Amino acid sequence: MYWLTFDIGPGTSAILDGQLPPGAKQARGSAGFDRYNAPCPGPRGHKYRITVYALNRVLNLPNGTSLLSAWQAIAAATIGRGRVTVSAAS
Q: Does residue 85 sit in helix, strand or coil?
């Protein structure tokens, strides 16, 4: 499942559980809704890839925009990225 947030301000240093930073928005994720759905790795575990993109502009897309629209806008504005993969077990 994808969960995608955007328009997170450059001064943001933490994201609290269950809350978006002021001004941030969410795309409609691969599960069909625009909210966070906590991972559920199951008994065999799962790997999660977390990617953070540095953009050269605010996207100004509406909250709940489609995942495809958000990905396209991010691709057009990306100037850098960081990625980490983590493994989790239930």
A: strand
Measured distance CA(90)–CA(88) in Å, rounded? 7
7-36 CB burial, b ≥16 within 10 A, e <16: bbeeeeeeeeeeebeeeebbbbbeeeebee
Q: Which helix (H) or strand (E) holds 5?
A: strand 5-6
Q: What would the pLDDT profile of 43-75 be if each residue is shown by its tens digit?
A: 787 888 889 999 999 998 999 999 899 999 999
**DSSP per-residue letters across 28-80:** B-TTSSSS-------TT-EEEEEEEEEESS---PPTT-BHHHHHHHHHHHEEE
Q: Give yes or no for a contact between 59 and 77, defined as CB atoms under 8 angstroms apart.
A: yes
Residue 55's DSSP bridge partners are: 78
Going by C-alpha positions, the residue among 31, 40, 32, 36 that lies closest to residue 19 is 36
pTM of full prediction above 0.85: no
